[in-house]
Amino acid sequence: MSNPFLKQVFNKDKTFRPKRKFEPGTQRFELHKKAQASLNAGLDLKLAVQLPPGEDLSDWVAVHVVDFFNRVNLIYGTIGDECTEQSCPVMSGGPKYEYRWQDEQHFRKPTALSAPRYMDLLMDWIEAQINNEELFPTRVGTPFPRNFLPAVRKILSRLFRVFVHVYIHHFDRIAQLGSEAHVNTCYKHFYYFVKEFGLIDTKELEPLKEMTARMCH
């Protein structure tokens, strides 16, 4: 994450897995630099997420998915010491929303888990996908697969649940650290991006609907 003001707030040691980086000299690396330059220049986030003229949509989406994965990891890392089996025995976003885990290997049926267990499985699951060369190709000229955007929608929907849990259950900790402005900026960036390209169903956004209306409109 090259954004300097976020570096000051989030202790990198608390990120609980290595960041996925882009290889210098690749188109993805250049797009990443372009996206970061827009943010660092203070460009309106609604404009910053728009696809640059002449660029490929899948490349632009891939760059942002990896970036959001890294950023959300950092955010969760800041409150991870307070999100425990005891404090958060259920992965939820308040009393109305409970998130159950399901995957292709170990949890074939939706399963109730504690928030830290859910988060750990989620980050492993996303990391495996963004490091999967067939789904997120890095070699120049290798096309994205047909299932790329459906896979991305699922990744982003699940990443959104981290924001939900952090905002509803751990915002006091974020405020205590003086990090709320930076977390809000990350959230707005994420929200404008998924809305720009229709990457999350409206019903998934319901838990933070009122907060988002105040923050993003």
Give me the secondary-structure topology.
Elements: H1 4-9, H2 27-40, H3 45-48, H4 57-79, H5 115-130, H6 148-176, H7 180-196, H8 209-216
Pfam family, one: Mob1_phocein
Keywords: Metal-binding, Zinc
Organism: Suricata suricatta
Descriptive report:
Zn(2+) binds at residues 83, 88, 165, 170. It comes from Suricata suricatta. Pfam families: Mob1_phocein. There is one protein chain. The chain has 217 residues and is an all-alpha fold. It has one domain (5-216): MOB kinase activator (Butyryl-CoA Dehydrogenase, subunit A, domain 3), CATH 1.20.140.30. 54% of the residues lie in helices and 0% in strands. It has helices at residues 4-9, 27-40, 45-48, 57-79, 115-130, 148-176, 180-196, 209-216. Helix 4 (57-79) packs antiparallel against helix 7 (180-196). It is globular, with a radius of gyration of 17 Å. The protein starts with a helix and ends with a helix. The model is unreliable at 1-16 (pLDDT under 50).
Assembly state: single chain
Portion of residues within helices:
40-55%
CATH topology: Butyryl-CoA Dehydrogenase, subunit A, domain 3
- Largest pleated sheet: none
Features:
Butyryl-CoA Dehydrogenase, subunit A, domain 3, mainly alpha, zinc, metal-binding, 217 residues, disordered N terminus, 54% helix, MOB_kinase_act_fam, globular
What's the short story on this structure?
With 217 residues, the protein is an all-alpha fold.
